[in-house]
Amino acid sequence: MPYIIDGHNLVPKIPGLNLADVDDEDLLVELLLKFCHYQNKQIEVFFDKSPPGGVRSRNHGPVTARFVPEGTSADEAIHRRLKQLGRAARNWIVVSSDQQIRAEALAVHSQYLTSEDFARTMLHKLAGQQNKLSESEEVQMNREEIKEWMRLFNPKEKE
């Protein structure tokens, strides 16, 4: 199931990210991209206060970042997106700890996760993937490299 995420609601729930950081949105999108890569998911993440004249939407493959202009909020944009999805909204998971968004998600029969629960799940999945990658990374050396290492660490060894 794809996700609709309240971005600035999720940022403070992830260790190392801070709303005061200039690039907090970019850092969150990077994490979401990794999550999507390993979990084969699609995400639309909504952020408040896009810069004036700035980009309203950036597509990063499976992650679409939507920047809401001043004068409206990500909450309102998520509400509009759920309405736009109509009956298909039931096929999406909404991520936010905002009670109003929760109520709207449940009203259209979407699944709902708090930002804390999603952050915990995402970080757990990413850590698991990182462990799998670390375990599977086996260094392969050719014969010449092996001979060189043997010569360096065992000088008595003849080639």
Keyword list:
alpha/beta, Rossmann fold, 6 helices, elongated
In summary, what is this structure?
This protein has 159 residues and is of the alpha/beta class. The chain is built from six helices and six strands, in the order βααβββαβαβαα.
Overall, the morphology is elongated
CATH class: Alpha Beta
Radius of gyration: 22 Å
What is the terminal separation in angstroms? 58 Å
CATH topology: Rossmann fold
Low-confidence stretches: none
Whole-number count of domains: 1
Give me the number of helical elements: 6
CATH architecture verdict:
3-Layer(aba) Sandwich
The helix-and-strand class reads: alpha/beta
Strand order of the largest sheet: 3-4-2-1-5-6
Strand residue percentage: 15-25%
Order of helices and strands: EHHEEEHEHEHH
Q: Main beta sheet: strand number and arrangement? A: 6 strands, mixed
What would the average pLDDT be, to the nearest integer?
85
Number of strands: 6
* Helix coverage percent: 40-55%
How is this fold's topology laid out?
Layout: E1 3-6, H1 7-10, H2 24-39, E2 43-47, E3 57-60, E4 63-67, H3 74-85, E5 93-95, H4 99-107, E6 111-113, H5 115-136, H6 143-153
Parallel strand pairs: 1-2, 1-5, 2-4, 5-6
Antiparallel strand pairs: 3-4
Helix pairs in contact: 2-5, 3-4
